[in-house]
Design brief:
The chain has helices at 46-63, 84-93; strands at 2-5, 20-23, 26-32, 71-78, 101-106, 116-123. By secondary structure, it is an alpha+beta fold. It has one domain (2-123): RutC-like (60s Ribosomal Protein L30, Chain: A, 2-Layer Sandwich). A six-stranded mixed beta sheet has the order 1-2-3-6-4-5, with helices on one face.
Length: 125
């Protein structure tokens, strides 16, 4: 059985998709970009964008009754791999061991020309 997850504490979907879908014991969170859900605006700078994306992910995970400690896979999309060290440091401050599996890739362009996007898969038990 599939269940859509939605919270007003994260940006609404900007297309025909859900913020997240729970399928069995896992939650698949759609890619989050650095939109402040209160203003609807993109925050500026890689540090602020990374923190906003992680905050958006946290809000969705909270709504799904799970957390970063239950994330099994992160995918990070960067507009420039030059930001990797900064993103990695901020990302690490949100997590504890055992760390999830992760892929980080540089892409040519992201929605709204943001610098970063992340999606996660989390376990719910």
């Amino acid at each position: 059985m599939l269940k859509a997850i939605y919270t007003e504490k994260a940006p609404a979907a900007i297309g025909p998709y859900s913020q997240a879908i729970q399928a069995g014991d896992f939650v698949y969170v759609s890619g989050q970009i650095p939109i402040d859900p209160q203003t609807g605006e993109v925050v500026e700078g890689i540090e602020n964008q990374t923190k906003q994306v992680l905050g958006n992910l946290k809000a969705i995970l909270d709504e799904a009754n799970t957390s970063f400690s239950q994330v099994v896979k992160f995918t990070i999309y960067l507009s420039s791999m030059d930001d990797f060290v900064t993103v990695n440091e901020i990302y690490g401050s949100f997590l504890t061991e055992p760390y999830p599996a992760r892929a980080t890739v540089e892409v040519s362009r992201l929605p709204k020309d943001v610098l970063i996007e992340m999606d996660v898969i989390a376990y719910t038990k």
